Structure prediction request, 244 residues.
Amino acid sequence: MIVIKDLYKTYNTGTVKVEALKNVNITVNDGDFLAVMGPSGSGKSTMMNILGLLDYPSEGSYLLDGVDTRSLDERQLAILRNGKLGFVFQSFNLLPRLNTQRNVELPLFYAGVGSKQRQALATAALERVGLISHAGHRPNELSGGQKQRVAIARAMINNPSLLLADEPTGNLDSASSYEIMSLFQELHRQGSTIILVTHEPEIARHAQQIVHFRDGRIVNSEKVDQPLDARRLLEEWLEQGGLA
Ligand SMILES: Nc1ncnc2c1ncn2[C@@H]1O[C@H](COP(=O)(O)OP(=O)(O)OP(=O)(O)O)[C@@H](O)[C@H]1O
Ligand SMILES: [Mg+2]
Prediction:
């Protein structure tokens, strides 16, 4: 469970002070699927970086599963990141010289997991995203949607309880977007907590709740009555010849 209280983030770059987050309060329960929307510069990525323990707030508190993250040192933060969190970015962030299999194994490599187990877990993760046949390909031999599925396999290899995705479909065509959303919905059904940033209202409607940021604040939070089913949308889209 995530509890954010009175959170502020101010960036000081030279003489300019940017208040990226101003008094954000939010609670995310285990198993929630949250979409974050808002104009460019409204603080969405700043929020995700703090949630992902990649950055820290200027003021306020962030409790993750009851632990005040302020009290943790770098090593403890790294253990939490490795053990509990998975990240997916718009730009995929795959290492170009490693093949699919090795990219997916990377978090386990950093966690000191032996090569046999790394291979077994990476194979299982690649099966889940339907890319076992591409295990030997390097990123430049994959389509955008395939790269993002590799990134998702990598993000879920340590069975994260919290998956953070910052515009994961931003660079993808419709079919690939539906595939990615369908994977997220499957992870969600299996119990993962998911927080997803998107500019697209239709993508946001795959979540259970949509939170809107503006000028560093949460200005609105709405429940999605009937979340869209990505698997079904993908099938319909393909039936129509993929020309929508
Ligand atoms: N490392 C940084 N140093 C200084 N300012 C920053 C930094 N990162 C973000 N900002 C500023 O903080 C504000 C919020 O940025 P953020 O990246 O969180 O926006 P965003 O909502 O993710 O936008 P987008 O939709 O374009 O990705 C912006 O004004 C941005 O310029
Ligand atoms: Mg952003």
